[in-house]
Amino acid sequence: MALIIREAVREDTATLLGFIRELALYEKAEHEVAATAETIRESIFGRDSVTRALICEQDGEPVGMAIWFFSYSTWQARNGLYLEDLYVTPKARGLGAGKAMLKRLAAIALENDCGRFEWSVLDWNEPAIRVYEAIGAEPMKEWVRYRLAGETLRDFAES
């Protein structure tokens, strides 16, 4: 029952895409997934990619992923690490896979002199919130996240 956290490689493309689809289903947003194997390969493993991924394996079987990138804090004048998505398969929940990936990401942040390690969580995802609070993470309640996407993004850029 050993957990191994490793860097994702190009050969993990299908696994990552499967996890992304499972996460979207869990978040009730499967209709929003536009990712394909080709776009995953290019966006995570492409030559100019700034995105990275981890795979968590239990006894050699992939059971989770973390997709992340470096962000930047103007106030700290330092990079930060931003966790875009963390996912653990239902059969591996409760085994410490999520916490193990968070610990590895925290270590990566420290190895790269990051001033912060941040992520977002849906306000209804109580199991994840309990894990995050248990490790000492604090919600940023005064911040509201905004987004432009799709046609709204295009319309605004072209106006």
Write the layout of secondary structure elements.
Blueprint: E1 3-7, H1 13-26, H2 37-45, E2 51-58, E3 61-73, E4 78-88, H3 97-111, E5 117-119, H4 126-134, H5 150-158
Parallel strand pairs: 4-5
Antiparallel strand pairs: 1-2, 2-3, 3-4
Overall description:
With 159 residues, the protein is an alpha+beta fold. The protein is built from 5 helices and 5 strands; from the N terminus they run E-H-H-E-E-E-H-E-H-H. The protein has a 5-stranded mixed β-sheet, with helices on both faces. Strand 2 and strand 3 form a beta hairpin. Helix 1 (13-26) packs across helix 2 (37-45). The mean pLDDT is 96.
Give a summary of the structure in a few sentences.
With 159 residues, this protein is of the alpha+beta class. Helix content is 35%, strand content 25%.
What gyration radius follows from the Cα positions, in whole Å? Answer: 16 Å
Q: What structural class do the secondary elements suggest?
A: alpha+beta
User: Roughly what percent helix?
Assistant: 25-40%
Pick out the low-confidence regions. none
Task: Strand order, main sheet: write it out.
Answer: 1-2-3-4-5
Number of helices: 5
Average pLDDT across residues?
A: 96
From the spread of the alpha carbons, the general shape counts as globular
Notable characteristics:
159 residues, 25% strand, alpha+beta
